[in-house]
Specification:
heterodimer; A: 356 residues; Rossmann fold; 48% helix; elongated; B: alpha/beta; 6-stranded parallel beta sheet; 8 strands
Chain lengths: 356, 283
């Protein structure tokens, strides 16, 4: 089916389908979510007795459409699904604040006003919460396979950067200083700092932020600091992501959306944060299907066919030339314009074609 | 800004069909966000629109940015802002260079976003002469986070100088004369659904005026095959027929908006790509 199966792809080295963790990265619109979901289904079908979890951190929650889930319960983020002819698996549609409440229920963090606001769904915390959730599910050892669909992000690398962000935040000596202030119980925190720090500075800061905010803010920071383990445990993920026996990662792109710059960024970042068990997936190839289906010659069709064939060939060659240390997997365009079940079936078959 | 030439790899041109012209709203706002689902062609669209406007309005100062390039160095901006408000260069510098501020800044994407928006607001309202800011903004969710950040921080502060300035920003970005949004929708049902959801979130959750939001239909194949008879269309490969049918359905719903349809377009020459694309715009 895949006329462009590249030479660098060697099946005997392939660890796909064997690692407990699989991560799908890439810019939007390339079919990342569909591929992550059908890869999960492939594992479900192949391993009927294993426990499998699919996580998406896409704020648009596209997987809801994919599995025809009801829209009516915005707070439900966890689903146990059973698909005919495929099998059973669990699905987590990550919503930062909801996840955070679950994780922090034993602390007073979830009641904090500032934390609540910053954790809202578009507050920008999806990536960090995604890493924390991933760690929690992984370390619980309940699941045999976890498949993660990362958000396209302000930049799709934000997710891979989240461990670094957590480390920076918590390994900061300023927090210890704040803590020492807070241990002098009688005075409000800002006043304690006022005694020791430049008075004018705090006066001005409070003028900027409004009265009472500094106190609330410092209390929040200290509260977060006291519950640092909620966050810093997730740093263990750094090692798991780098272990080729534990993590496979897929960078998904398509000929229509291919940007060499993005792929280069990914290649650089993946050396730092991901295992060597990394693949580039060139999705939504059209030319071989179009050629197969063409029965009649029409001028605009000729033009389009030539264009698309040359473009797909060039991109495939360019990827193999520029990124020889990655294996390349090619997937054909599959349209779900009419029937989503057919679409799922087709992608599932393409995974099988690659992996069995 | 990221270069668009790397998008193009074909030596075969797929020309713009000159019958399809994309019209722009008038008058133009001070800030224009171009958004949509990932991969719908925001970067090329924004750059080409910039090229078109430069030609049409030689006196208009056009600034292109994707909020991540050198135009936006929000930290420097924060320092400038604090300097202005606290009347002290030293204090401003002390705050922005402190490791405490930096780690909070790194850990809180919402804070970075609101600083970016603050910077944009300040630039747009203090521009010398007529100026338009064309923002090649991040995809769906993150366009929402731009507006959401202002809402969140207004709620966080509730009073004080920062609060007052956030309210000014709100008045600017929620005013359809000052700020407009172009939503690019691509030729796929998923993209269509997501664009509709984005539209709903912007108007219902964020409370933006729907008059400030314009849809553009990008990367459509229909224009290339528009000359074919219905009987000829039936001879096309099923994959293409299906694609054209899908596009047709999407366009039919908004038949009036055909003047905002842009054909899937590629130039054989990366150097003239933006110039070629910009020829599809009209006032």
């Amino acid at each position: 089916m895949n006329s462009l199966a590249p030479s660098s792809y060697r099946k005997e080295e392939c660890l796909i389908g064997k690692t407990p963790l699989a991560i799908f990265c890439g810019t939007g619109g390339v079919g990342k979510t569909s591929l992550a979901a059908t890869y999960a289904l492939f594992l479900v079908q192949k391993n009927p007795k294993k426990k499998i979890l699919l996580i998406t951190i896409d704020p648009s929650l596209r997987l809801k459409d994919f599995f025809k889930l009801p829209e009516n319960n915005p707070t439900q983020d966890f689903f146990s699904l059973s698909l005919p002819e495929i099998g059973n698996f669990d699905l987590l549609l990550l919503q930062p604040f909801y996840s955070f409440s679950k994780i922090s229920s034993k602390t007073s963090l979830e009641k904090n006003r500032l934390v609540k606001l910053l954790m809202s769904n578009f507050g920008g915390m999806q990536e960090i919460m995604g890493m924390i959730e991933l760690y929690n599910y992984y370390s619980s050892q309940y699941y045999d396979f976890i498949i993660l669909d990362t958000p396209p992000g302000k930049h799709f690398l934000d997710f891979l950067n989240s461990c670094q962000k957590i480390r920076k935040f918590f390994h900061n000596k300023v927090f210890d200083l704040l803590k020492s202030f807070s241990s002098q119980k009688k005075l409000p925190i800002w006043k304690k700092i006022l005694i020791q720090g430049p008075e004018k500075l705090l006066f001005y800061l409070e003028k900027m932020t409004g009265e009472g905010f500094l106190q609330e803010f410092l209390e929040t920071v200290i509260l977060i600091r006291e519950n640092y383990q909620l966050f810093t445990n997730a740093l263990e993920m750094e090692n798991i992501l780098k272990d080729p026996n534990k993590t496979a990662s897929f960078y998904v792109t398509s000929c229509k959306h291919y940007k060499a710059d993005d792929l280069e960024d990914f290649a650089l970042k993946s050396q730092e944060t991901l295992s060597k068990n990394s693949y580039i997936v060139l999705n939504r190839q059209e030319s071989s299907i179009l050629f197969e289906q063409t029965r009649h010659s029409l001028p605009p069709l000729e033009m389009y066919l030539k264009y698309i064939q040359e473009k797909e060939k060039n991109i495939s060659l360019q990827i193999q030339e520029k990124f020889p240390h990655f294996s390349l997997l090619c997937f054909n365009e599959s349209s779900w314009h009419e029937e989503i079940d057919l679409f799922i079936k087709d992608l599932l078959n393409q995974w099988k074609g690659h992996l069995s | 800004m990221k270069s668009v030439d790397t998008i193009i790899n074909s030596s075969l041109p797929l020309p713009i069909n000159s019958k399809f012209k994309v019209s722009l709203p008038s008058p133009l706002p001070k800030v224009l966000f171009v958004s949509g689902k990932g991969g719908v062609g925001k970067t090329l669209f924004t750059q080409s629109l910039g090229a078109f406007l430069r030609k049409e309005y030689p006196n208009l100062n056009i600034i292109l940015s994707n909020l991540e390039d050198s135009f936006f160095s929000p930290l420097l901006s924060v320092q400038e802002y604090l300097k202005l408000r606290l009347h002290s260069d030293k204090i401003a510098q002390w705050i922005t260079e402190s490791s405490f501020f930096n780690s909070i800044y790194q850990m809180t994407p919402g804070l970075q976003t609101v600083c970016c928006m603050g910077h944009l607001y300040f630039q747009a309202t203090h521009a010398l002469g007529p100026t338009i800011y064309l923002i090649d903004s991040p995809s769906s969710g993150h366009l929402l986070s731009l507006f959401e950040s202002i809402r969140i921080f207004t709620e966080i502060f509730q009073k004080g100088i920062l609060f007052d300035d956030l309210i000014k920003m709100k008045n600017f970005f929620w005013n359809s004369n000052e700020t407009q949004i172009f939503l690019l929708c691509g030729p796929h049902p998923i993209i269509y659904t997501e664009t509709q959801e984005l539209m709903a979130s912007l108007t219902q959750e964020q409370g933006l005026n729907s008059a400030a939001i314009f849809w553009y239909w990008n990367q459509f194949l229909t224009p290339h095959f528009s000359e074919l008879e219905e009987s000829e269309k039936k001879l096309l490969p099923p994959l293409l027929q299906q694609q054209l049918e899908t596009e047709y359905k999407m366009l039919e719903k908004k038949s009036l908006l055909l003047k905002r349809t842009i054909p899937l377009f590629f130039s054989s020459n990366p150097d003239t790509l933006i110039e070629d694309f910009s020829s599809c715009f009209t006032l």
